[in-house]
Design brief:
130 residues; alpha+beta; Bacillus phage protein; three-stranded antiparallel sheet; 8 strands; 27% helix; globular
Length: 130
């Protein structure tokens, strides 16, 4: 499988879900829905694979915010100048040393988890960027 390095701060979609799985010690698999032909990230457990989408699904992402003790806040006014479009939310790591922004609370939180555990750049399957 061909991989590429991408900036953690720019991760979205399946790429961020893959990276969060890796950052939290899970083994992600790219699967395809046979009816819609849409790819998704799956995690296998002892019973069957389940869809893993922490950047879009609160039942996946919410527990991670609690587990890692993230602070998540909405920007109502610029903090350091103008707010970038698409970066209206921020997630802070528990020691306030890592901050990641995003268009949603879940995406900001997912980027923070990846940044803290894997770094400012992350290697992901190239197919996830399409």
């Amino acid at each position: 499988m061909k991989t590429v390095k991408v900036q953690t701060a720019s991760l979205t979609g399946l790429a961020i879900d893959w990276a969060v799985a890796k950052a939290t010690g899970l083994t992600p698999t790219i699967m395809c829905n046979s009816e819609t032909l849409e790819d998704y990230i799956a995690i296998r457990n002892s019973v069957a694979p389940w869809r893993f989408s922490p950047s879009r699904n609160w039942s996946d992402g919410g527990p991670l915010i609690e587990k890692y003790g993230l602070g998540v806040a909405k920007f109502y006014e610029p903090v350091d100048g103008q707010i970038q479009t698409g970066c209206e939310w921020a997630a802070l790591w528990r020691d306030d040393k890592k901050r990641m922004d995003g268009p949603t609370a879940l995406i900001a939180a997912c980027r923070a988890i990846v940044a803290f555990n894997l770094g400012e750049t992350v290697e992901i399957p190239a197919s996830l960027l399409n």
